[in-house]
Amino acid sequence: MEPFWLSRDEVQRLDRRAADEFGVAGIVLMENAGRGCAELLARLNPDRRPTVILCGPGNNGGDGFVAARHLDNRGWPVTVWLLRPDGQRAFGFGGAVAALDRRLSPDCETNAGIWARSNPLATNDGPAWKEALGLDVTAAGWVVDALFGTGLTRPLGPPFDELVPFLNAAGKPILAVDLPSGMDCDSGDPLGPTVTATHTATFVAHKKGFLNPQSHNLTGEIHVVDIGAPRALIEEYRKVRPAGGRGYSSAG
User: Fold this and answer.
1) What distance in Å separates the CA atoms of residue 91 and residue 114, rounded to the nearest whole number?
2) Would you put residue 129 in left (φ > 0), alpha (ψ -120 to 50) or beta?
3) CA distance linking residue 121 with residue 204, whole number of Å
4) How far, in Å, are 54, 55, 92, 142 from residue 120 at the CA level?
5) Which of 32, 42, 94, 108 is geometrically suited to a Cys-Cys bond with 104, CB 3.0 to 4.6 A?
6) Taking the domains of the chain in order of start, what are their residue ranges?
7) Order of strands, sheet of 221-225, starting from the edge strand that comes earlier in the sequence
């Protein structure tokens, strides 16, 4: 099908309408998004090299937890980190999550809990977490950026403003979830430190910022992932949002 693009506001509106008008709950969209990312990464990483998935506290992080579960179900070696702004503590112990304080988005909290009940979960809690994360990234074959998505409107703060330059310098292939963390969805410009991805798994449609020719330096190759939003809803946006002259590929 002919590709098209969505702005930040349109992404949020489409998600709300999928739930309110069509009955497709947000957690269902998240499940499909994360599974689509896992299937894409399985194709990009046929050698099953160890993968580190970095999850933020919002729905982008929830997508990452779903992707981790589906990769783990395939027998992939996966390490998952839950990363939160400095001053917001997440505790991991005994394979379970406690004291999340509801500072995660509800759907992210659900999928973080599912993961943590069956697998180790590392968090940015404790004095040695930076060193531990650095060792995990160094040992990884792939990194998945599931830190922040289309809702980001300001530069990344601690600890992400230090983490992103480290990731970019690590020399690992990076799959960004929806768009690279730190990129403005509508302009395609970096808001500050921004992940430089090798591939981007974007959901439903390209984002408005991808029309910016310079955004390709951050997104790498773009793949559109179907998350199960009803076709009747998507077609409303496709009719008025042509993608323009760039070449795109589809993961579906």
Assistant:
1) 15
2) alpha
3) 29
4) 13, 14, 8, 18
5) 108
6) 5-86+128-250
7) 122-123, 78-82, 51-55, 142-146, 174-177, 199-203, 221-225, 249-250
Tens of pLDDT, residue by residue, the chain (252 residues) = 567 899 999 999 999 999 999 999 999 999 999 999 999 999 999 999 999 999 999 999 999 999 999 999 999 999 999 998 875 554 333 333 444 445 789 999 999 999 999 998 888 877 789 999 999 999 999 999 999 999 999 999 999 999 999 999 999 999 999 999 999 999 999 999 999 999 999 999 999 999 999 999 999 999 999 999 999 999 999 877 655 434 334 444
- Here the contacts of 162-171 (C-beta below 8 Å, separation 24 or greater) are 163/54, 163/83, 163/133, 164/193, 164/194, 164/195, 165/193, 166/134, 166/137, 167/54, 167/137, 167/143, 167/195, 168/195, 168/196, 170/137, 170/138, 170/143
Q: Other CB atoms closer than 10 Å to residue 167's CB: what's the count?
A: 23
- Which residue from 177, 186, 153 is spatially nearest to 10, judged by alpha carbons? 186
Sort strands 91-93 and 96-98 into parallel, antiparallel or unpaired.
antiparallel
Dihedral Cα 35, 65, 148, 160, nearest 10 deg: -140
* ω into 159 cis (within 30 of 0): yes
